[in-house]
Design brief:
The chain is mostly helical. It has one domain (3-93). Helix content is 85%, strand content 0%. It has four helices and no strands. The protein has helices at 3-21, 26-36, 39-52, 57-93. The radius of gyration is 18 Å and the shape is elongated.
């Protein structure tokens, strides 16, 4: 098992425990971890759960979707910046 895999698993376990502490099923935490995908996104979710202590599953899912949306927007921005950099290099140096 690689370091990244063990980090993902330990962060997922922390997320599941946070969800269970609020009285929700572990399956909700498992699904959130799978959907969020990265340890950093899961850490953001854990912080939200520990600070806000949402009272319904809908609030948890809503925050999970918001975090995922922000991550996707960031990835798209980075890809766009990379493409723009390559385009500018082609314009400046030529093919």
């Amino acid at each position: 098992m690689t370091t990244n895999q063990s980090l993902w698993i330990s962060t997922k376990d922390k997320l599941v425990r946070s969800v269970e502490r609020l009285g929700f099923p572990a399956s909700l935490g498992e699904a959130a971890a799978k959907h969020l995908g990265s340890p950093k996104a899961m850490e953001r979710m854990i912080s939200y759960l520990d600070y806000v202590k949402p009272k319904s599953e809908e609030l948890i899912v809503d925050e999970m979707l918001a975090i995922r949306s922000e991550v996707d927007a960031w990835k798209e921005k980075k890809a766009s910046e990379e493409a723009n950099t390559r385009y500018n290099e082609i314009m400046y140096y030529g093919l």
